[in-house]
Specification:
- It is a single chain.
- By secondary structure, the chain is α/β, with parallel strands linked by helices.
- It has three domains: 188 residues, FAD/NAD(P)-binding domain (3-Layer(bba) Sandwich), CATH 3.50.50.60; 133 residues, FAD/NAD(P)-binding domain (3-Layer(bba) Sandwich), CATH 3.50.50; 90 residues, Immunoglobulin-like (Sandwich), CATH 2.60.40.
- Helix content is 19%, strand content 37%.
- It contains eight helices and 28 strands.
- Strands 1, 2, 5, 6, 7, 8 and 20 form a seven-stranded mixed sheet that branches. A five-stranded parallel sheet has the order 11-18-12-13-14.
- Strand 12, helix 5 and strand 13 form a beta-alpha-beta unit.
- It is globular.
- The structure holds flavin-adenine dinucleotide.
- Flavin-adenine dinucleotide (FAD) binds next to helix 1, strand 6, strand 9, helix 4 and helix 5.
């Protein structure tokens, strides 16, 4: 007979760790944490630069140091941890949910009342962005290159082109330079950099690494190993401009071209996803539209600060142990918003501290964010500057606001 747990958490990164710790704090709750890798910590294991935990701990920790604090805390709880265990299937069953995972003992089945999905995200690859050319070695996603350098101690190349100026691309540009590679340049299709301003300075300017905006890699060349890449300028719709091609000799192309929430298991459970975030649609408790299924961390939406990943894990873990009969109202977006999470509010839950994350759709200045219910303003804040790479977080107190029939609207507009 399958073993039964109240809560199963899938993924042992910062989101899953925080969710499991929080859930275990309720007396008598049985929690199983399933992680496919050999160690807990998720992607933080390979992020050896500092800057993690400033919001939560007021310190600049490395990724492994940040993860270690939660791993130590987890060891003090009664959470059962199953490492080297890959969840392959989930579905609703007679006892809540049936979960199948593969581990060194073979295929295992457990049942549970609630599921917390903390599966992180995956990287976009060369195929996902349609780079043509030879099928040679030397083309890596940034995560794979980071894993080679920081975990395996192997250099992915000596002359490196980086495509994508998001934080991961910038951090890899610095990391590979520090390890002795020549980073020829960071190329970015957009007219503005995608990473945090501090990373542009600390990772590129401080190391004299050029940043080429409105440019992309359109082709790779190499018989066995990468020998060169073709760079093209792009127009305002990010289409390559004919006649602008140049060739850059290199033996390594690092692709830092975006992360996509990992939601194969969510799809299997029939969890509706948000086209804007590519993660689940959730309420303020991180519960998806499928009752009993929660999502947090990068599986929910791509975060730039791990502190908020842990925060959403705690929200999911705390809520999953509570019983609630939900009544959901939709949150409608207006104006220049890329996305906002949560996309629903449960009016039967606590509304005194609703945490909402959002991103602006463009680089904007002098903006006003307004949250209104039934046409009445419930929250307003003015922002001098908003950048799409920098996620914003607000806390709403909606106690006493009548949400029963009122539509909740979040609007970003010129001040
Ligand atoms: C390549 C890469 C580099 C990054 N570098 C930085 C950085 O330098 N600085 C920064 O601030 N942020 C960085 N981030 C962002 C970082 O991902 C988040 O801050 C945070 O680590 C996300 O936490 P998470 O728990 O949601 O996901 P993750 O840390 O990705 O953890 C998800 C966990 O789920 C497990 N998992 C997934 N599917 C299954 C399954 N089916 N069965 C069992 N286990 C499963 C995975 O093995 C993994 O351990 C990076 C992200 C990526 C992808």
């Amino acid at each position: 007979m399958s073993k039964h747990y109240q809560i199963v958490v899938v993924g042992g990164g910062p989101a899953g760790l925080a969710a499991a710790i929080k859930a275990s704090q309720s007396a008598g709750v049985s929690v199983l944490l399933i992680e496919r890798e050999a160690r807990l910590g998720g992607i933080l294991k390979q992020c050896i630069h500092d800057g993690f935990g400033v919001v939560r701990f007021g310190e600049k920790l490395s990724g492994p140091e940040y993860a270690e604090r939660f791993i130590k805390q987890l060891a003090q709880t009664g959470v059962t941890v199953s490492l080297f265990s890959y969840v392959t299937r989930m579905r609703r069953g007679d006892k809540g949910f049936d979960i199948t995972y593969v581990c060194k003992d073979g295929v295992q089945n457990v049942t549970c009342d609630k599921i917390i999905l903390a599966t992180g995200c995956r990287e976009r690859t060369r195929n996902a962005i349609f780079i043509n050319g030879d099928r040679c070695a030397g083309v890596y996603t940034a995560g794979a290159a980071q894993n080679l350098v920081n975990i395996l101690g192997v250099m992915p190349g000596k002359r490196v082109v980086i495509l994508g100026s998001g934080d991961i691309g910038l951090i890899m540009a610095r990391r590979l330079t520090l390890e002795g590679a020549k980073v020829i340049g960071v190329y970015e299709a957009k007219p503005t950099p995608s990473g945090l301003t501090r990373n542009i300075h600390q990772c590129l300017h401080d190391f004299d690494i050029p940043l080429h905006l409105s440019s992309t890699v359109t082709r790779v060349f190499g018989t066995n190993r990468l020998e060169s890449v073709e760079i093209s300028k792009v127009d305002d719709k990010m289409r390559p401009i004919e006649g602008t091609q140049t060739t850059v000799e290199c033996d390594c192309l690092v692709l830092a071209v975006g992360l996509i929430p990992e939601n194969e298991l969510a799809r299997e459970l029939g969890v509706p996803l948000d086209n804007r975030t590519k993660g689940a649609i959730v309420d303020q408790n991180c519960q998806t539209l499928a009752d009993g299924v929660y999502a947090c961390g990068n599986a929910l939406h791509v975060n730039d600060l791990v502190d908020y990943v842990s925060e959403s894990g705690e929200t999911a873990g705390g809520a999953a142990v509570a019983e609630s009969k939900r009544k959901l109202v939709p949150v409608t977006l207006q104006g220049k918003l890329l996305y906002a999470v949560p996309q629903r509010l449960d009016v039967n839950s606590d509304l005194s501290k609703v945490i909402m994350y959002f991103r602006a759709s463009d680089e904007l200045s002098q903006q006003r964010l307004t949250v209104s219910v039934g046409g009445k303003t419930a929250f307003t804040k003015v922002y001098n500057k908003l950048l799409p790479p920098e996620m914003e977080r607000i806390t709403l107190d909606l106690t006493g606001v009548d949400l029963t029939d009122g539509e909740v609207t979040v609007k970003l507009e010129d001040k």
